[in-house]
């Protein structure tokens, strides 16, 4: 039986351009099940980031309903939403979004603020294992500016995985990478999805990955279609 994780029903999103209300997402309905690997494609400005910001609880201002694991969080406080987001969702962005004044280790530890693992004896071991599996253990005390793009993205991936999220939301994760690193990141996503049963939602412009997942969505001028 399919296990539903995400259910958007008739979601619309507006932005104000001056005094004018512009509709960015138009009546989007979408269901994503646990263990799905969903690829979202669409032209620049079509509304992909707007959509994943809603899916990732980064944006709560929309019309329509969003149920996560069978529950609506639309009326919950910011604290509850932050905790839900930090426990369940790992974000990966095209430009990595690392903190440049923090070391690799410190960057990866950022999401732990919400996880009450400060006194966890296994934390250091977990962190080392994660960095080792991503091939960046020797960079633990380096700063992002001392790393290549591929290594920086691996730090961002480690940061996304440290809390063992049920979902990875990745916005153009390979957009700034060369072909070798792109290949490696995609293989890692495949393993996370197939072996670790992590749900993946990935926005990409790269046609090569259109059929990489089991679900393919296209956003066209704010309208979502499944292909
Ligand atoms: N904060 C904002 N205020 C007003 N308009 C916005 C805001 N954020 C996005 N938009 C507009 O919403 C539309 C969709 O933007 P969005 O970033 O979701 O597109 P996208 O499909 O992710 O594009 P890209 O592939 O270039 O990242 C664009 O026309 C954009 O200008």
From TrEMBL:
Entry GO CC: membrane protein complex
Keyword Endoplasmic reticulum attributed: no
Domain ABC transporter: from-to ranges: 6-227
GO molecular function: ATP binding; ATP hydrolysis activity; transmembrane transporter activity
InterPro entries to which the protein is assigned, alphabetical: AAA+_ATPase, ABC_transporter-like_ATP-bd, ABC_transporter-like_CS, MacB-like_ATP-bd, P-loop_NTPase
Gene Ontology process terms (BP): amino acid transport
Family matches, as Gene3D superfamilies: P-loop containing nucleotide triphosphate hydrolases
Secretion signal, residue range per the UniProt entry: none
Any coiled-coil regions, as ranges: none
Family in the record: Belongs to the ABC transporter superfamily.
Protein name according to UniProt: ABC transporter domain-containing protein
Organism: Fructilactobacillus sanfranciscensis (strain TMW 1.1304) (Lactobacillus sanfranciscensis)
